[in-house]
Write a sequence for this structure.
């Protein structure tokens, strides 16, 4: 079991290069956008709204085929290469049909979205989401083939190109007064649409990098296999839609529900503040990339349930520590966004707590995937989504984006609790609930203490919060005997022996 956990930790670390470190680099775009697009302009609100739509559409266009690919490729009776090519054909065909439908009904769609005068924004985002959906399968194939380094390199290549072109458009060219290809007007006014055009160009380049995974395989399409795969994947699609709505519905619904004149400004403030909280999402995403193939590959081992239980405890421990670390350094992290967005910082702990529950829910979700009862995931996510929608619909008009934050918290919490109790009936796992409760209560108490600002100085208050954060680490270090684990590491191990 220890070897399996070490392998999981290794893969998580490599995938983390592309998700945590890579997304951290991508955060350079947040101060760039908030500095060049003022809150009052509503520009960042537009970015927040359109990317929320693409997140939802990406789930629809992949329709659970990533997880389905892993499940069928790991079945002894299936040909993994045939599973891969059949999946590619299916997702690629639906992506093409989606783009054709958007182009065919472009005037009506762009008007409905509120961007009637900016149809090219809508076309660009449609092509981007179609390419992303198609890319999801080759990326899943790299994970299946245990090629995390190549996976990370492709992800980082996209991020570096995206950052470079954004810096050129928003900073370098205006400073040099170079109006290449007529990108600016006479006053060098920035067009938020170029955020989407740049994304389209970089996404296209990454798609071309998959030439080996696309052209150096034996293409075989099996209709009967696809039918079985779709039977497995459709509940995952429902689960995915409900799950992404927990993340994106507030940003989609906000312009509809919040009717004040400054709705795009308020959405931009909320979207910028959420970016800080998304540090937690990066951690859970890195864990997921390694955990999904790990779980399906280990499903036949005798000690699998014990491993899942330990992995859950470690996940909760380290995400709670990350939560406290972000709160401790909030006065530093807030400088990621421009000062006119700081009023939204009060949503950060709420959104991070929701992301932790989402990660726990993801870990719990494997019981129904392993016994091929994915319909349960659809039920849990649908109920959680219904809770989120109810809170948004009834409270956003009065409380604004604070209701959005609490809606996500309540939605994930509901899905998490339901999955745990039903899972214990159908696929019981002895999670170390006592240890989990101790760490959760301790983190809650330390967070409450962090809300006190005893010195009235950002520097001293930050140091005070860092001391509280280290209290959690010391308790975790002692209880889990981490000194013994660190002692085995080269170089730094001698400090723990």
């Amino acid at each position: 079991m220890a070897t399996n956990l070490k392998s999981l930790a290794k893969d998580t670390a490599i995938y983390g290069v592309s998700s945590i470190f890579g997304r951290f680099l991508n955060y350079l775009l947040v101060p760039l956008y908030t500095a060049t697009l003022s809150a009052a302009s509503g520009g960042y609100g537009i970015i927040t709204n359109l990317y929320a739509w693409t997140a939802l559409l990406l789930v629809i266009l992949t329709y659970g085929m990533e997880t389905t690919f892993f499940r069928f490729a790991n079945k002894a009776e299936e040909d993994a290469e045939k599973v891969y090519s059949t999946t590619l054909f299916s997702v690629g065909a639906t992506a093409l049909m989606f783009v054709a439908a958007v182009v065919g009904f472009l005037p009506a769609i762009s008007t409905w979205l509120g961007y009637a005068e900016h149809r090219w924004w809508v076309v660009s985002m449609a092509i981007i989401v179609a390419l992303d959906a198609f890319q999801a399968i080759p990326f899943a194939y790299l994970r299946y083939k245990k090629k995390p380094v190549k996976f990370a390199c492709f992800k980082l290549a996209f991020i570096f190109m995206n950052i470079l072109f954004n810096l050129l458009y928003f900073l370098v060219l205006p400073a040099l007064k170079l109006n290449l290809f007529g990108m600016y007007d006479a006053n060098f006014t920035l067009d938020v649409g170029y955020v989407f055009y740049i994304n389209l160009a970089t996404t296209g380049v990454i798609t071309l990098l998959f030439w080996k995974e696309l052209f150096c395989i034996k293409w075989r399409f099996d209709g009967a296999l696809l039918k079985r795969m779709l039977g497995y994947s459709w509940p995952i699609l429902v689960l995915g839609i409900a799950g992404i709505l927990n993340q994106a519905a507030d940003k989609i619904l906000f312009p509809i529900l919040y009717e004040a004149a400054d709705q795009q400004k308020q959405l931009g403030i909320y979207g910028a503040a959420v970016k800080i909280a998304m540090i937690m999402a990066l951690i859970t995403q890195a864990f997921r990339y390694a955990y999904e193939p790990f779980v399906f590959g280990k499903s036949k081992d005798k000690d699998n349930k014990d491993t899942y239980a330990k992995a859950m405890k470690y996940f909760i421990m380290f995400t709670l520590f990350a939560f406290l670390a972000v709160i401790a350094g909030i006065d530093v992290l807030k400088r990621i966004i421009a000062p006119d967005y700081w009023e939204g910082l009060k949503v950060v702990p709420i959104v991070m707590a929701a992301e932790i529950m989402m990660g726990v829910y993801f870990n719990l979700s494997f019981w129904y995937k392993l016994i091929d009862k994915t319909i349960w995931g659809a039920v849990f996510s649908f109920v959680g989504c219904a809770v989120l929608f109810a809170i948004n619909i009834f409270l956003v008009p009065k409380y604004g984006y604070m209701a959005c934050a609490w809606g996500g918290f309540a939605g994930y919490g509901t899905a998490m609790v339901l999955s745990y109790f039903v899972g214990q009936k159908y696929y019981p796992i002895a999670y170390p609930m006592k240890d989990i409760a101790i760490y959760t209560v301790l983190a809650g108490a330390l967070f409450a203490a962090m809300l006190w600002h005893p010195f009235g100085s950002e520097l001293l208050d930050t140091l005070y919060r860092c001391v509280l954060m280290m209290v959690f680490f010391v308790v975790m270090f002692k209880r889990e005997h981490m000194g013994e684990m660190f002692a085995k590491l080269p170089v730094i191990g001698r400090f723990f022996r």
